[in-house]
Design a protein that fits this description.
The complex is a heterodimer of chains A (about 675) and B (about 80). With about 675 residues, chain A is an alpha/beta fold. Chain A contains 29 helices and twelve strands. In chain B, strand 3 and strand 4 form a beta hairpin. Classes of the chains: A alpha/beta (about 675), B mainly beta (about 80).
């Protein structure tokens, strides 16, 4: 199978082309020891399979940041096998800068072809390109395409790609380009690179003078007009905050309906299956262990999809770069970079891709600082926990001023994370100032209408990997939890049942109103307390009791280390909610009464305290593993685990006692 | 009158005359900031830093200290030196 690497500048339409050609038939790969990703996809051309590799967009092969280094690794075959041919994507409206990469690549001896994108915006800028003359000048086949709107792209591209796959390698004069790239890759800084670049631009000027005509100097751009607003000192920041608010609220409100459908579907399924199956331990595994666990995974797919979709729209439209532009000055003051904004906003979806997105930050200290604070952004895994707790303790009808109280608490949880992240970054800067130069140098691409189909496709791929990766962990944990809560040491479970019957009998005698369902609930709760899970929960209770949590919450907290959203699944397993959905767990939790005070056990103080704990604590094992990969040492994830854990504990303690005294 | 790129007014066009030696030289050159290129200041972020320039045909955001490395010769309204 031939492998063809796709190369090009950032924002040249390369990834759109890749997504159009491969659709959902794509997967990502990591080089050993790194988290920098290359996307692979397979396409069928005339009965043969060709593998396409989408590499990160770069301006030059002199690589400093990790995403640029990945490209050089592929081209030189460092730790990964070389591609058979290169497909270069050239932005026609920016040909001069795009050709620098072509000039560097042509000395490496690969069979090469190019596609020219953005013909329409080149025309709008008064640039006329003669493709056949450019083919002659560059000595390779070039085809003009429009990956955004071309309906028959697949047909025209497959013939072009198949010709490229058969193209022989060019015969070159001997040159030392590969050696120079390799030396630069390993950290040497050979002299004369700037001069070399200037000379390449001279050559590019002479190529362009033959095949490109500049008709007008006019550059009527709505981008600059829009930017007057988006970078305005008042309107720009107002727009930034408005967009962030829409992002959080949108995820919350738009996902509500599909989540109800999924919940109802699962509870229907569980009751139907429970009805048909015999009363057996395996039936209990299915209806009390697996199904609630599975429901706990699937129910959050709508939220995760919407969050990734909205962030995708912001990136694809070109807005995110403006957010970097207006915040750079502020971010620099606390030791971050304007470029940190994209990973930080991405952290609202998931810390793992967000930490990977820091690789475009060249300054190592700024990059490290960004990685360290990304986990404080409330990720989509925390959303289900917030949703359960908020709906548990705050009635939907309550308002704080004009804002619904539920939305207010949700937004406050997000801002608490952001606030602590900024403080942590500033602290880190004070302890660990950067010795390297800090740079911004960022292209501001023209605004474009986001490609809904591509963005939705990417969001769905993220959901699919969530279902596969988080899903299998969550399922495993729900089975383990089910086992831990179904068995106990010795004959403790039998004793618990007898105790429950005794208590039931006593209640029955005094009130005479108890029914069979009450006996079952009573038995369940006594059994749970006597089980291995109960012992585990009781063991950590002293550490979390000051925060207002009981041993059941303790079990849920421990299980959250796999993934935070497991909290909801655990609670539903522990409370053996008959209908496996949020309202079911909520109803069960609201029934519980504190034996000492006679008030609801899981009230406002409990909910707020847990929200604060989840907002700050570094609980996700996958996040810690990726942080270890990105920083190269376990000492960062471990010290942050302790530090953020301490902040979470103190914060939750403060909020718990404050809300008890404010709302007794 | 030669000046550096950050000293241009918004909407003012110039031609890059030279780049200062230093760490950023290679990066700026790679981004197309080479002598002879047209550069036009478009707008700046709140606080005046970073600044957005149109370099040849695209928009590039540069910090103040990065723009100060680019020596330019301003053009008049008609596009001449």
């Amino acid at each position: 199978m031939k492998r063809i690497a796709l190369l090009g500048n950032p924002n040249c339409g390369k990834t759109t082309l890749f997504n159009r050609l491969t659709g959902l038939q794509q997967h990502t790969s990591n080089l050993p020891g790194t988290t920098v990703e290359a996307h692979h996809g397979e396409i069928q051309i005339q009965g043969e399979t060709v593998e396409l590799v989408d590499l990160p967009g770069i301006y030059s092969l002199y690589a400093e940041s990790d995403d640029e280094k990945l490209v050089v690794q592929h081209l030189l075959g460092i730790g990964v096998s070389k591609p058979d041919a290169l497909l270069l994507v050239l932005d026609s409206s920016n040909l001069r800068r795009n050709l620098l990469l072509q000039q560097q690549l042509q000395e490496l001896g690969y069979p090469m072809a190019a596609v020219a994108t953005m013909q329409d915006s080149a025309k709008r800028r008064g640039l006329l390109l003669d493709i056949s003359k450019l083919e002659q000048q560059l000595d390779m086949p070039i085809m003009a395409i429009n990956p955004r709107s071309d309906r028959k792209l697949g047909d025209s591209m497959s013939e072009f790609v198949s010709t490229l796959a058969k193209r022989p390698a060019p015969i070159l004069a001997p040159n030392d380009s590969a050696e120079k790239l390799q030396a630069f890759f390993y950290g040497e800084k050979p002299k004369g690179l700037s001069m070399e670049t200037l000379l390449r631009y001279n050559r590019i000027e002479s190529i362009l003078s033959v095949c490109q005509e500049q008709r007008a100097l006019g550059w009527k751009s709505i981008t600059v007009k829009l930017d007057r607003w988006f970078v305005h000192p008042i309107a720009g920041f107002a727009a930034f905050f408005a967009i962030m608010m829409v992002l959080f609220q949108g995820v919350f409100s738009m996902a509500e309906l599909p989540m109800t459908w999924i919940e109802n579907g699962f509870s229907q399924a569980a009751s139907t299956i429970g009805h048909w199956l015999p009363d057996h331990i395996l039936s209990s595994l299915l209806t009390d262990g697996l199904l609630p666990g599975l429901a706990g995974v699937v129910v959050f797919v709508p939220q995760i999809f919407i969050l990734f979709f909205l962030i995708g729209l912001l990136e694809d439209s070109g807005y995110m770069v403006r957010a970097s532009f207006i915040t750079d000055r502020l971010m620099r003051k606390i030791g971050l970079n304007g470029r940190s904004v994209i990973p930080l906003v991405g952290g609202f979806a998931c810390a793992i891709p967000a930490m990977m997105a820091t690789r475009s930050i060249r300054n190592r200290t700024e990059r490290l600082a960004t990685i360290l604070v990304v986990p404080l952004m409330s990720c989509s895994a925390r959303l289900p926990v917030y949703v359960l707790l908020i709906s548990l303790a705050i009635p939907a009808q309550h308002f704080i001023g004009p804002i619904p109280a539920q939305s207010f608490v949700m937004t406050a949880a997000y801002f608490a994370g952001i606030f602590v992240a900024l403080i942590m970054a500033a602290l880190f800067k004070a302890i660990h100032p950067s010795r390297e130069r800090s740079e911004f140098i960022l292209e501001l691409p023209a605004y474009q209408k986001p490609r809904l189909q591509t963005v939705a496709q990417q969001a769905w791929l993220k959901c699919r990997s969530f279902l596969q990766e988080a899903g299998s962990v969550i399922l495993l944990i729900s089975v383990v939890l089910w086992a831990l809560s179904s068995w106990g040491p010795g004959d403790s479970m039998k004793q618990a049942e007898q105790r429950a019957q005794a208590v039931f009998a006593a209640q029955n005698a005094s009130q005479g109103t108890a029914d069979a369902e009450q006996l079952e609930q009573l038995t369940n709760s006594y059994r749970l307390e006597a089980s291995y899970a109960g012992h585990l929960g009781h063991a950590i209770e002293p550490a979390i009791a000051p925060l207002g949590y009981d041993w059941k919450t303790g079990i849920a907290l421990i299980s959250s280390f796999a993934a935070r959203e497991v909290f909801v699944g655990t609670m539903s397993t522990l409370f053996q909610s008959s209908d496996d959905n949020l309202s079911g767990i909520r109803a069960r939790m609201q029934q519980e009464v504190d034996a000492k005070t006679g008030k609801p056990k899981y009230g406002l103080a409990y909910a707020l305290s847990l929200i604060v704990f989840y907002a700050f604590a570094l609980q996700c094992i996958s996040t810690m593993a990726v942080m270890k990969k990105e920083t190269g040492t376990w000492s960062w994830p471990i010290s942050l685990f302790v530090l953020y854990g301490a902040i979470a504990w103190v914060g939750a303690y403060g909020v718990y006692h404050l809300s008890i005294s404010l709302f007794p | 009158m030669p000046k550096t790129a950050d000293q241009l007014q918004n909407g003012e066009t110039a031609v890059i005359a030279s780049l200062h030696e230093g760490d950023f030289l290679l990066r700026l050159a790679e981004m197309g900031c080479v002598p002879g290129t047209r550069i036009r200041r478009e707008y700046q972020a709140p606080g005046g830093d970073p600044i957005a320039f149109r370099v040849d045909t695209y928009l590039l955001g540069l910090r103040l200290d990065e723009a100060q490395l680019i020596e330019v010769l301003p053009l008049d309204e008609g596009g001449t030196l």
